[in-house]
Amino acid sequence: MVRSLGPSPAMSESPPPEAERVRSLFAQVFEVPAAGRAALLDGACSDPALRAQVEDLLWHYDQRLSMLSQGGEPAPQSSPSPAPPARIGPYTVIGTLGAGGMGVVYRARQASPQRDVALKVLQLGVVRDDVLARFAREAELLGRLKHPGIAQVFDAGTFDAGHGS
Questions:
Q1: CB 19 within 8 Å of CB 144
Q2: What is the pLDDT along the chain (165 residues), one digit of tens a residue?
Q3: How far apart are CA 117 and CA 33, in angstroms?
């Protein structure tokens, strides 16, 4: 998934009802401290799929806030991570922004148009059909949302990492 590191442009189409429900619920809870969100979500959302989408957005929102509060530097990692690849598809990797249980987010440079982007890449150990489907769904939903705390999605897809995936 490729996301802009800059401001997101205005949307030209209205989002589908499902994306609007995700946006509305996210807007209700994103400013609530993380410790209080579960109780608020319990009362506001009975749809497990909708809740999972909102929780995923909240996680991304928190990650971005954490990065911004640290002056744009990635959070310290408990164990050394491998060196990032030089390229991922058409993007030149500049460095690592952060890592989690499912993947790594790289800072990269897109050649045309020239801009810095964030590339979210799943770790090989978690790449399964269900995870890829969730990842594609996340890209689709995030691509339709417009919020200052959510980066704009420009591209999503897969690439061969040299491991047959």
A1: yes
A2: 555 554 444 444 555 677 788 888 888 887 888 778 888 888 888 888 888 888 888 877 777 666 665 555 544 444 445 677 888 888 999 988 887 767 788 899 998 899 998 888 887 666 778 888 888 888 888 888 887 777 788 888 777 666 544
A3: 28
Long-range pairs of 34-42 with CB within 8 A, sequence gap ≥ 24: 34/58, 34/62
For residue 85, with 0-12 CB atoms within 10 Å meaning exposed, 13-18 middle and 19 or more buried, which class applies?
middle
**How long is the chain?**
165
Spatial CA neighbour of 74 closest among 100, 103, 96, 102:
96
Q: Alpha-carbon distance 54 to 107, whole Å?
A: 24
Cα atoms in the 13 Å half-sphere on the side-chain side of 112: 0
Two structure tokens written together for 93:
């990797």
Q: Please tell me the pTM assigned to this model.
A: 0.48
Tell me the C-alpha distance between 142 and 163, whole Å: 28
CB 2 within 8 A of CB 119: yes
